[in-house]
Amino acid sequence: AQSVSQHNHHVILSEAASLELGCNYSYGGTVNLFWYVQYPGQHLQLLLKYFSGDPLVKGIKGFEAEFIKSKFSFNLRKPSVQWSDTAEYFCAVNREGGGADGLTFGKGTHLIIQP
Amino acid sequence: DARVTQTPRHKVTEMGQEVTMRCQPILGHNTVFWYRQTMMQGLELLAYFRNRAPLDDSGMPKDRFSAEMPDATLATLKIQPSEPRDSAVYFCASGLTTAGQGVSYNEQFFGPGTRLTVL
Known about the structure:
The structure holds 2 protein chains of 2 kinds.
Chain A: E1 3-5, E2 10-14, E3 19-21, E4 24-26, E5 31-38, E6 44-50, E7 56-58, E8 64-68, E9 73-78, E10 87-95, E11 104-105, E12 109-114
Parallel strand pairs in A: 2-12
Antiparallel strand pairs in A: 1-4, 3-9, 5-6, 5-10, 7-8, 8-9, 10-11, 10-12
Chain B: E1 5-7, E2 10-13, E3 19-24, E4 31-38, E5 42-50, E6 53-56, E7 65-71, E8 74-79, E9 88-95, E10 109-110, E11 114-118
């Protein structure tokens, strides 16, 4: 079974700072990778996903993530954060070809952006 | 704008009572997932269906939880009897899994969740 580890449980940044949230997964096979965001009181929304191809994927709201297979990592980045990025961020995986498989989520990173 | 809907949005009940949560997947989606979110455990997969057939419910306490899809537009998650440790936000998600080139995967769309409090 796969597992996901998000190293930073709480991150506090000032506006305009650069962001990088770590995500590592463990699974012996090929995986699909996702980052979801949950704004306060709202449901999960997909930020970006990686299935195959270019390991640098771009998502909504200026976010991007890089899949490094050798490190089993899929870190989320944003060059300049805004106050509105305050939210909970979840990394998730499911195994490639496991079309109907559910997602395995990390515990989440609570990001607070200070004005 | 197609969305997954869930009812009720909030539910407060007493221990021992039956709780039923409902989900309407996005029209045309054939895969439905139930997740539970708690502070301690984070987001956990409880069960999922494809074409209304249960594929995996290993994440669900089977002695008190049951999940069904009476039809393609409705998925239900029932807890009987409920316990305080069941207090959580329960999310439903739907997606489209297509055959042809084997089983492929598409994005899961999440509903707004049902916040359950068991006293």
